[in-house]
Amino acid sequence: MTARKLAAGNWKMNGLAADLVEAEALAKAFPSPKVDVLLCPPATLIAPMSAKVGGSAIAVGGQNCHAVESGAHTGDVSAAMLADAGASYVIVGHSERRTDHGETDASIRLKTQAAWSAGLVAIVCIGETLGQREDGETLDVVGGQLAGSLPDDCTAANTVVAYEPVWAIGTGKVPTLDQIAEVHVFLRAKLEDRFGAEGAGIPLLYGGSVKPSNADEIFGVSNVDGALVGGASLKAADFGGIIGAL
Ligand code: PEP
């Protein structure tokens, strides 16, 4: 059993300083939420968002980190820098990074270890493409990504896994509840096999076109411990509807 559910918002490459009002509104609307609430804005907004919501129940996270702490990596941001700016989580291996930046399970594993070294919780994303699902490869694909992306020292406190079917991200298409359940049961068994009691406690999020209107039924699926939310996390009113459903 996982301790608390998690509603994690991924703003992707959206948001300017003026949009921090949404984070402030969320903090005001949920002074003591029943679930953990996290916003992952672009790197430019981590420090100002942390300043705005500091002392509230809203945590702040990054969307990616480099695998090393510092050095000659122009344009990159390290996990230590995210932590220094006020982050307590970082998303690694999002499908958009796997596609746009050629990230592999091996590189995501290193980023996860870098996140831990900086004291961050790593949210490790996995998920199949539409073609892989249609070819009946979903469990093989997510099982391989899970095995390859997670280091050996995963605990319920340092790692969150997000199952995000690539074809459901930003498309408005959502798997059936049975399809979500099948993958989450499979992933939970794999986590328990590899990490024992810790694996039983690692939160398993679903992500892909979660909205206030479908959140309730998705959160009713067993082994769904919360959500990673893209588009619907940009506005406090929408994200609030999802948080309220958990
Ligand atoms: C995401 O970016 O991780 C995501 C799930 O996006 P959306 O909710 O917009 O599908």
UniProtKB/TrEMBL annotation:
Keywords recorded for this protein, A-Z: Cytoplasm, Gluconeogenesis, Glycolysis, Isomerase
Residue positions binding substrate: 10-12, 170, 209, 230-231
Short name of any one Pfam family annotated for the protein: TIM
Enzymatic class: isomerase
EC number annotated for this UniProt entry: 5.3.1.1
UniProt-annotated catalytic positions: 94 (electrophile), 164 (proton acceptor)
Keyword Aminoacyl-tRNA synthetase: no
Catalyzed reactions per annotation: L-erythrulose 1-phosphate = D-erythrulose 4-phosphate; D-glyceraldehyde 3-phosphate = dihydroxyacetone phosphate
Family per similarity comment: Belongs to the triosephosphate isomerase family.
Protein name: Triosephosphate isomerase
Name of the gene encoding the protein in the UniProt record: tpiA
